[in-house]
Specification:
With 150 residues, the protein is α+β, with helices and mostly antiparallel strands. The protein has five helices and four strands. A four-stranded mixed sheet has the order 3-2-1-4, covered by helices on one side. Helix 1 crosses helix 2.
């Protein structure tokens, strides 16, 4: 097993077992719901926006280890970020998980997100990994629409 694959598995297992920022956020100002009908992942993302800044972000729901770990990492990275920074991280994450497997990710630029490059080896899991991110984007945009991966 490669070092990158081992790190990928460790991060997924850690964030699945001990998700960060998990649970309702009663005083949220923005929220959205996301659902993956193929595997049953179902999450709500809650944000407290202070102007253009994500003051706090939580997620709640159920899903596979990859979707839960992705949501957990996402919340740790986005807390304190501006809307523009959140959109940039969304794009970086989406580009990472949908890029060709043979493309080497820029680990310095991606930081913690780089571990999700392993998802590319399992195309059916890309939707699992990206569900929380699409749900967050809908919450930030305050469009009121539920997100579905189908």
């Amino acid at each position: 097993m490669s070092e990158a694959s081992e790190l990928y598995q460790q991060v997924i297992l850690d964030h699945n077992k001990n998700p960060r920022n998990y649970g309702d956020l009663p005083s949220h100002t923005h929220s959205s719901e996301g659902y993956n009908p193929l595997c049953g992942d179902h999450y709500h993302v809650y944000l407290i926006m202070d102007g253009d800044t994500i003051k706090d972000i939580h997620f709640a729901g159920t899903g596979c280890a990859i979707s839960k770990a992705s949501a957990s990492v996402m919340t740790t990275l986005l807390k304190g970020k501006t809307r523009a920074q959140a959109e940039d991280l969304f794009k970086q994450f989406h580009d990472l998980v949908t890029s060709p497997v043979e493309q080497t990710p820029d680990e310095d630029a991606l930081g913690k997100l780089a571990v999700f490059a392993g998802v590319r080896e399992y195309p059916s899991r890309v939707k699992c990994a990206s569900l929380a991110w699409h749900t967050m984007k809908a919450a930030v945009d305050k469009n009121g629409q539920a997100v579905s991966t189908e």
